[in-house]
Amino acid sequence: MIIADRFAAAISAGPTPESHRHSRQLLLSLLLLLQSLLLACNAEPDTDIADTPPGSILGPQHLALIINDEDPLSRRIAEYYLTRRHIPASNVIHVKFKPGNDVMRPQTFRTLKTQLDAQLPAAVQAYVLTWTTPYRVGCMSITTAFAAGFNEAFCVQGCKATKTSPYFNSNSQQPFTDLGWRPAMMLAGETFESVKALIDRGVAADGTHPDGTAYLLSTSDRARNTRARFYNGINMLQSDRFRVEIKKGDYLKHRSDVMFYFTGLAKVEGIDSNQYRPGAIADHLTSAGGKLIGSRQMSSLRWLEAGATGSYGAVVEPCAFVQKFPRPNIVIDRYLNGETLLEAYWKSVEWPGQGVFIGEPLAAPFR
């Protein structure tokens, strides 16, 4: 490598006849390639844990699979996910509560969480929840309640800040060990068939490095278009390694290569007309997307039904704080760097107390 450095410096120094300029440029390119190869040969051997992406240690052995034994759909989803993702039997945790309610009472949750924590293996760093309701605990999302415990610092009335996530844009590979949080994601869907398809997409995505496009929509809804401020930066920083398309308009239709789709509207038309790459992430900034069942606005479940592998939505009125929604620049960058869906998505939300994460948590298309 030292020889290559000196040779390159010698060639670069001093005047060069015009007739030899192209030869000099070619030789410099070859020398730089040689230097890169030498660096690669001297690199430390890969020590990543099997079945987890580089830059992450989050794998099946770090997930606790939470099953509601009183919910037949939860049991069926868990059985399928256990098989597809090879979750260790010791990480399967059974709880019991009456299914069908959108909101769980904080007292009920605290009792359930105490019982659950007593059963957790030490290696567990995150949760996967195998139901669609409840999606709230009191005034906060159930995924953040599992991550950090029920805490009224996440509950606000009106347009106010909430407690910050220490996991936000963090390089932590072990969120519970490092930060005391176990981020959670829901395998959500109204039927077993829809959740089965979601799980299959997540598994199929792993390590595929799919072609596709990041569609960033700047809509006519000014209150919900607050994330558009990040779009030009995403295009500048990511377009050399992934296709980015910024669109001014309310809808995206008949696209066959959707990998990312971020927008801001109460209801998004035409999402079923698109084709989504396995592992795709899509969400819409609005007040009630996380009300998964019975919302007057579009439920985030519609993204999963359309073919996305992960989505996010607010369970109570958050106001249009960008801190309460996924930052597209962060989630795209971390996902492209090989993090799992759970890691990249969770790390993109600074104030997650009012939003719920849904999808297949271990999907890692860019491992």
Helix content: 25-40%
How does the helix and strand content classify structurally? alpha/beta
Q: Main sheet? A: 4 strands, parallel
Strand content: 15-25%
Gyration radius, in Å: 23 Å
Distance between the termini: 29 Å
Number of helices: 11
Helices and strands in order, then pairings?
Elements: H1 2-12, H2 21-41, E1 63-68, H3 72-85, E2 92-95, E3 103-104, H4 106-117, E4 126-129, E5 136-137, E6 140-141, H5 142-148, H6 175-179, E7 184-186, H7 192-205, E8 213-218, H8 231-238, E9 243-248, E10 258-263, E11 276-284, H9 301-306, E12 310-314, H10 328-336, H11 341-346, E13 355-359
Parallel strand pairs: 1-2, 1-4, 3-5, 4-7, 8-9, 8-10, 10-11
Antiparallel strand pairs: 5-6, 12-13
Helix pairs in contact: 1-2, 3-7, 8-10
Notes on the protein architecture:
- The chain is α/β, with parallel strands linked by helices and 367 residues long.
- The chain has a domain at 210-339.
- Helix content is 31%, strand content 16%.
- It is built from eleven helices and 13 strands.
- The chain has helices at 2-12, 21-41, 72-85, 106-117, 142-148, 175-179, 192-205, 231-238, 301-306, 328-336, 341-346; strands at residues 63-68, 92-95, 103-104, 126-129, 136-137, 140-141, 184-186, 213-218, 243-248, 258-263, 276-284, 310-314, 355-359.
- The strands form four sheets. Strands 2-1-4-7 form a four-stranded parallel sheet, with helices on both faces. Strands 9-8-10-11 form a four-stranded parallel sheet.
- 45% of the residues are buried.
